[in-house]
Write a structure and sequence with these properties.
Helices cover 42% and strands 8% of the residues. By secondary structure, it is of the alpha/beta class. The relative contact order is 0.10.
C-alpha cells in the first residue's frame, strides 16, 4: 500500500516540481510494537515504519536523485497528540467525518466504526484522552469500545492485550523496554541512521510512555464514571472495562503467536549515552512451544520459530544433560544430526534447520550491531563430531520446566 501511495505521490510531485512527499501517521502505529503473543497480525503492518520510509527514499533516489523525498511529520507523536493538534487548529468538527476502522465492509451510514479492531481502539482512546468525545459520538460505533459486548473471543483478547500493552509502557524503564522490544528498537534505529542512537531511542521510548499515560488516563476516567455499575455488577462481562478490572486475561482465548521476531529479556542495560548490547554475549536462549510449533528466543536479538528451531530444540536436551552431569563448557557433547530423528525427517533437512536458525540470528545480530557475528550463534559445529548448543549460552526451557 505504501509503495502504491509513494508511486502516485512521486508522480504528482514530479509533475509539479514538488520535493516533499508526506505520510501522516502517529509514531505508535508506525512502530507497531507487538502487543502480545496471543494476538495474530493485528498490529503487524509496517507501512510507515522508519525503516520502510528509509527504504522508499533509497528507491526514489535511484529513480530521480534530486527528486521527491518521503517523510512522516508525525513520527514522534502519539494518536492523542495528533487529535489534540486537530483541535489546536479548530478542526475538531471534522473528526466525525473521518473513518479509522479497518472493517469497511461492515460500515453503514449510521455505524461507521466497528469498535472492535485495533484502529478503533487507537481512535477512541485517543479521542477520550484528548477530551474530544463530543466530536466522536458513541453511536458511530457498532460496539462501544469500553462498554460494548464482545462476543468473539478474538476481540476480547485484542481489547485486553492492547490495553495491557499500552499501560505497561507507561512506566517501563529503558532496560525492560529494550529487552521486550529489542528487535523492534533496532529496526527503528536503523530507520534513523546516522542520527545518534541514544537520541532516537529517547524519542522512541518517550513517545510510547506518553501513549501509555494516555490509555491509563482513559481507563481511570472510565472507572470513575462507571464506579456504581462496577460495584453493582451491572456492566456486561465481555466489555473491555469489566474484563480489565475483574481479571486481565481471564476468559480470553489463547491465540497463536504474532508472526514476527520479538526479543523477551535484554542481556545488558542501556548505557548513559548509547543503546547497546554486548556483542560478545553470553546469550540467553528461551525455548517454548506455541501449540506444536517450536520457538527459540535469543534475548536482545530475535525469535526463531517452526522448522528453523527444530534442531535447536532437540540439542537443548543434551545441553541440560551436560549441565546436570557437571561437565565444563569445553566438555559439552557434540551430537550427530542422524541421532536426532525427531528434529527433521532427513539429515539434509536437519542441516537446513541449523542453517536457517543461524541465519536468522546472524541477520538480527547484524541489524543490532552493524556487522556479522564472528561465529555462528546458539548452535556450534564440531565438524564431524556434529553440533551442540553453545555451552556458554544460558538455556531456559518453558517446554519442560526444570
Amino acid at each position: 500500500r505504501s509503495l502504491l501511495f509513494t508511486a502516485i505521490g512521486h508522480s504528482v510531485a514530479q509533475a509539479f516540481g514538488g520535493k516533499r512527499l508526506s505520510f501522516y501517521e502517529n509514531g505508535v502505529v508506525s512502530h507497531n510494537l507487538p502487543i502480545s503473543p496471543q494476538v495474530v497480525g493485528t498490529m503487524a503492518t509496517r507501512t510507515t515504519h522508519p525503516q520502510s520510509i528509509t527504504l522508499l527514499n533509497r528507491l526514489l533516489a535511484l529513480i530521480s536523485p534530486d527528486g521527491t523525498k518521503v517523510s512522516n511529520p508525525y513520527q514522534w507523536m502519539t494518536k492523542t497528540e495528533v487529535i489534540e493538534r486537530i483541535a489546536q487548529f479548530s478542526g475538531q468538527d471534522m473528526i466525525a467525518k473521518a473513518v479509522s476502522c479497518t472493517h469497511v465492509r461492515e460500515q453503514t451510514a449510521a455505524k461507521t466504526h466497528c469498535g472492535r479492531c485495533s484502529q478503533c481502539l487507537d481512535r477512541r482512546f485517543a479521542i477520550l484522552a484528548a477530551g474530544l468525545e463530543a466530536h466522536d459520538p458513541e453511536d458511530f460505533y457498532s460496539t462501544d469500545v469500553l462498554l460494548g459486548i464482545r462476543a468473539d473471543d478474538q476481540y476480547k483478547t485484542l481489547a485486553v492485550e492492547w490495553t495491557r500493552h499500552a499501560i505497561d509502557l507507561r512506566e517501563i524503564d529503558d532496560k525492560a523496554f529494550l529487552g521486550k522490544f529489542g528487535t523492534e528498537t533496532s529496526r527503528v534505529l536503523q530507520g534513523h541512521t546516522p542520527s545518534p542512537k541514544e537520541e532516537i531511542f529517547g524519542l522512541m521510548i518517550g513517545m510510547h510512555r506518553r501513549h501509555g499515560v494516555a490509555v491509563h488516563k482513559v481507563m481511570m476516567q472510565a472507572v470513575a464514571l462507571q464506579q456504581a455499575a462496577l460495584v453493582d455488577h451491572q456492566l456486561q462481562p465481555s466489555c473491555l472495562l469489566r474484563l480489565w478490572i475483574s481479571d486481565p486475561g481471564s476468559n480470553v482465548a489463547d491465540l497463536p503467536s504474532i508472526q514476527h521476531p520479538q526479543a523477551v529479556v535484554a542481556t545488558e542495560a542501556i548505557g548513559e549515552t548509547e543503546v547497546i548490547l554486548d556483542p560478545a554475549g553470553p546469550w540467553t536462549a528461551r525455548f517454548s512451544l506455541i501449540g506444536s510449533k517450536p520457538v527459540v528466543v535469543v534475548d536482545g536479538l530475535a525469535r526463531v520459530s517452526g522448522a528453523p528451531a527444530q534442531v535447536a530444540h532437540q540439542l537443548k536436551e543434551f545441553w541440560f544433560d551436560d549441565v546436570a552431569n557437571g561437565r565444563t563448557p569445553k566438555d559439552h557433547h557434540f551430537v550427530l544430526l542422524y541421532t536426532l530423528p525427531k528434529a527433521a525427517p532427513t539429515k539434509e533437512t536437519a542441516k537446513q534447520s541449523v542453517r536457517r536458525c543461524r541465519k536468522a540470528l546472524s541477520d538480527a545480530y547484524e541489524l543490532v550491531f552493524g556487522y556479522k557475528p564472528a561465529q555462528p550463534l546458539l548452535i556450534e559445529s564440531g565438524g564431524k563430531l556434529g553440533y551442540r548448543i553453545d555451552p556458554l549460552t544460558k538455556v531456559i526451557d518453558f517446554t519442560n520446566p526444570r
